[in-house]
Amino acid sequence: MGAQELDLLRVAVTVAREASSLVESSRSSAITDVDTKSSETDVVTAADKAAERLVRDRLAELRPGEPVLGEEEGESSAGAPAGGVCWVVDPIDGTVNYLYGYPWYAVSVAAQVDGVSVAGAVVEPASGRVWTAARGEGAWLDDRPLRVSGADRLDLSLVSTGFAYRPERRRRQAAAIAGLLGRVRDIRRAGAASLDLCAVAAGWVDAYAEHGLSRWDWAAGALVAEEAGAIVRVPGDGSDGLGAEAIIASAPGVADEFHTALREVGFGVV
Questions:
Q1: Which CATH architecture has domain 154-269?
Q2: Is 92 annotated as a binding residue?
Q3: Binding site annotation covers 264?
Q4: Which amino acid positions bind Mg(2+) 1, per UniProt (predicted)?
Q5: Same CATH fold, 154-269 and 3-145?
Q6: How do the domains of the chain map onto residue ranges?
Q7: Under 8 Å CB-to-CB from 8, ≥6 apart: which residues?
Q8: Could you tell me the pTM of the whole model?
Q9: H helices of 26-134, where?
Q10: Which residue has the higher pLDDT, 170 or 196?
């Protein structure tokens, strides 16, 4: 651990920053060229496609031969061999926010080895903030080291979440979160999973949970949260009763209570 992760992090930051500049400079034209994916509310802009293409091209130059998994173009090859690096890219996390000009969206680039994130960068085009982490090396917002909050009571914790695009699933998710609302200080829904995870890392929220995300939504942000001291649960087999697709991050002092509350409100079955 150490040198390889930091080398991968430097590449992640470089390409994410370049993509972020493209995303921000092209917004006025990109939002006039909008398509949809899983539903009419699940949008993709020209900037999503252009930013992912830029990241893929730059990774091919800087890390030739390594596969890339991206939201817009899928996986570039059969995948990385055991012990090899695979890059996981979300060219714009929070595309609906981007479309509306709500400044909570980001470019997310992570390097994974055997499905585990080892380096990641989350860059905010609107503000220029850069969130970074390398496994075993800590997490940072620009030049400031990150640490999760010291929350130790769920009823005094600020929690964030997100919802699916399909109406039928959104209704089930909303019902579960409604059950959680009376158990916490308050709930936030900002619309970009990578940044929600970074917010846990910064102590801006005490916990976060969402269901049904793809790997590119959380690959970099989950590492930032974990390296800042959060207890992080990434999608897995669901044997803990929280569903195979759940991503959860929380301050250590409320992790057990938060997981219990999520199970009790039916979060794992949405």
A1: 3-Layer(aba) Sandwich (3.40)
A2: yes
A3: no
A4: 71, 92, 217
A5: no
A6: 3-145, 154-269
A7: 85, 111, 118, 119, 134
A8: 0.94
A9: 27-30, 46-62, 95-100
A10: 196
**Fold of domain 3-145:** Fructose-1,6-Bisphosphatase; Chain A, domain 1 (3.30.540)
Percentage above 90 pLDDT, the chain: 81
Strands 207-211 vs 186-188: parallel, antiparallel or unpaired: unpaired
Q: Which residue has the tokens 């695979």?
A: 86
Is 93 annotated to bind ligand? yes
Sign of CA dihedral 107, 111, 116, 119: negative
Distance CA 248, CA 210 (A): 7
With beta carbons less than 8 A apart as the criterion, state whether 44 and 72 touch: yes
Q: Is 260 within 8 Å of 158 (Cβ atoms)?
A: no
Q: Is 57 annotated as a binding residue?
A: no
Let me know the angle formed at the C-alpha of 243 by 155 and 140, rounded to the nearest 5 degrees.
60
CB-based contact 217:198 (threshold 8 Å): no
Q: Quick one: which of 116, 117, 95 has its CA closest to 106?
A: 95
144 class by beta-carbon count within 10 Å (0-12 exposed, 13-18 middle, 19+ buried): exposed
The H or E element that residue 117 is part of is: strand 116-123
User: 132-144, pLDDT tens digit by residue?
Assistant: 999 999 999 999 9
Helices (H), the chain: 3-25, 27-30, 46-62, 95-100, 167-181, 193-202, 215-227, 255-264
Cα–Cα distance measured from residue 267 to residue 259, given in angstroms and rounded to the nearest whole number: 9
Is the pLDDT assigned to residue 77 strictly greater than 70? no
The mean pLDDT of 105-123, rounded to a whole number, is 98
Residue among 121, 151, 118 at smallest CA distance from 136: 118
What length is written for the chain?
270
> Which tokens hold the place of 180?
């959680």
155 known member of a binding site: no
